[in-house]
Amino acid sequence: MTSITIARKLLTSGCVAAALLLSVSAAAQEAPKPVMDPASSQDEIKQFCTNIADPARDQRYLLQKQELEKLQADIDQRIATMDKRKAEYEDWLKRRDDFLKTADSGLVDIYKNMKPDAAAASLNDVKVTVAAAIIMKLSPRQSSLILAEMDAQKAAVVTNIISSASDPNTSKSKDPS
């Protein structure tokens, strides 16, 4: 391996180190030369460093640019994935909201027209949050009759959900269940 090859590999380590290695390697490969004065040796090192400074800087910038391009490609891929997931979520949310709007009034009307004992039996078998939402939309008189007919434990949970949903101190981001 020539001293120039070694010096090129060490460009990123610093100019002076490469120049010193170059001079040591050259001295080891060649026959002994007359002792040079330190001033001319320093001038050679300075000249070497000056000559390779621009190519070394260019190489370093090229490596940094390539790394940044890789990172940018990774970020672009992640953004595309997030946009796809966001679109899927928005579509799902829109379908859910449309369903709730159409089923909401119809479902509440069904429970309005049921007898309290039948409504209570039916609400005992649905999710607690659904039961609470339906009971909240009924009149207080109907709600109280249905809650009185429901299973005591489920009625207590429903009451807690309704209470926390109407509590102004409860954060909207907090799940009442």
From TrEMBL:
- Keyword Signal among record annotations: yes
The alphabetical list of record keywords is:
Cell projection, Cilium, Flagellum, Signal
Q: Which SUPFAM superfamilies match?
A: MgtE N-terminal domain-like (SSF158791)
| Signal peptide (from-to) | 1-28
By what name is this protein known? Flagellar motility protein MotE (MotC chaperone)
- The record lists the organism as Rhizobium leucaenae
Q: What is the lineage of its organism?
A: Bacteria, Pseudomonadati, Pseudomonadota, Alphaproteobacteria, Hyphomicrobiales
